[in-house]
Amino acid sequence: MLVKVNRAAASALLTLLLLVGIAPSSHAQLGITRSKGQQLLDGIVVKVDNQIVLQSDVENIYLQEVARAEGKALPPDLKCKILQSLVLNKLMLARAEVDSVTVTDQQVNGEVDRRMAYFVQQIGSEKRMEEQYNKPIKTLKEDLRPQIKDQLTQQEMQRTITGKVAVTPREVSQYFARIPQDSLPYFSTEVEVGQIIIPAQINEQAKQAAIAKLNDIRGQVQAGGDFATFAKEFSQDPGSAIEGGYLGAFKRGELVPEYEAASMKLEPGQLSPVVQSQFGFHLIQFIERKGNTYSTRHILLKPETGTSDAGEAAKTLTKLRRQIQSDSISFAKAAKDNSSDKITGGNGGLLQNREDGGTRLPLDKLDPAIFFTIDTMKVGNITPPMPYRTDDGKDGMRILWLKSSTAPHQANLQQDYQKIAAAALNEKKNKALDEWFLKNRGTVYLEIAPEYAQCKVLDVAER
Question: Which residues form the PpiC domain (predicted)?
Fold first, then answer.
């Protein structure tokens, strides 16, 4: 049968399933606890074309919300809202298949590796991860991959629907005027913080040791040794090491230039010389070409940086700090030209608020390392160079700049335009999604289990 879909009741929950940055408190968050045989016993509660929603999908998310609530009362219709969100996500997946909205294997593999690395970090080690789930890491990745692909496809579908939506200053002002005065939010102290990061240089002795080690492995492989075995033992790329160094198939332009250039010179089975990239030093084994793609294995070594190697980075930052303080260069230009963090470097050096895309950050939500540094600083001051470690574990130095500090206040257009604009844009995007769902609700087959009929998932809510 063709049915109607409730859009408005679930608009705030569209991204509920995108489990990014969540501690692995349960097996369900990895999406890897059920085999296909077990799913048959689980119970299908909704069908959307060839997409299904399982009873456990609803229950797992509900339990996560209960854990987050920490004893606070939850909405009595929470399970219905979760189901509505799941149905809407499945509708987007169904339409994505029809409209040929896809994501690349590289995107999926990258997110699987990132997500798995996060869970491994939270649990403590790959060994403990495998013991907890009673599966090897490779199998866990394979189990996780379909879920990640669906999530990325949902995001891509949502971008195709709302990607061109924008708001004008007039629309922002009109949105703000509709908010009742007694409902205006109260913002705590907020700050704008800039940073310039310069990585420590690789110690020449460590660099030569890595090259020598890879050349030794190369010789052993050429003498009959197994590349995959060496990769599992020595490679410092956790994503591929467990798979014998296998990276998978990629198209031209998808891997860093140095790696690709070296790979393209090889024939199946051949080994490259030692190759240096931004990630470290590689020994590459070419596997095969298939059309426009090629596949390889590699062993990655990342030489450690010594404390003395941070000295050059500190000298450069000290010089930049003096130039900024004497107004001979702006902090924004210094960050753009020198910072190894390209995200903040392209944003005038300023850290970004992920919630609204602005540059003002709540003081009480800052990273502790930044909070305790700027808490006693005056606006305009710049710290001396300080040790820093990047997200991927590289050592370096950085300076921090306190650009501004805003006292606690009730929301207003003058001080909070970016936040209000982000909220207005979100509302407009939701309206665009409403229109899309209304237009496409009759293009899919949808069936819901009787026990969830009270959720009114099949009704269209008027705004």
Answer: 188-288, 291-393
Span 80-109, average pLDDT:
87
State the average pLDDT over residues 400-425: 92
pLDDT at 391: 67
Using alpha carbons, select from 298, 284, 294, 285 the residue that is nearest to residue 241.
Answer: 298
Residue 240 has pLDDT above 50, yes or no: yes
| Contact call for residues 51 and 44 (beta carbons, < 8 A) | no
Does position 382 have pLDDT exceeding 50, yes or no? yes
Q: Which CATH architecture fits 8-169+420-455?
A: Orthogonal Bundle (1.10)
The Cα 398–Cα 138 span in angstroms is 37
* Domain 204-301 = CATH 3.80.10.10: no
Query: C-alpha 303: how far from its chain's center?
Result: 26
Q: What stretches of 252-389 adopt beta strand conformation (E)? A: 275-277, 280-290, 293-301, 361-362, 386-389
Confidence at residue 305, expressed as pLDDT on a 0 to 100 scale: 61
Distances (CA, A) of 237 to 135, 191, 326, 366: 20, 37, 43, 30
Please state which CATH number belongs to domain 186-201+307-410.
3.10.50.40
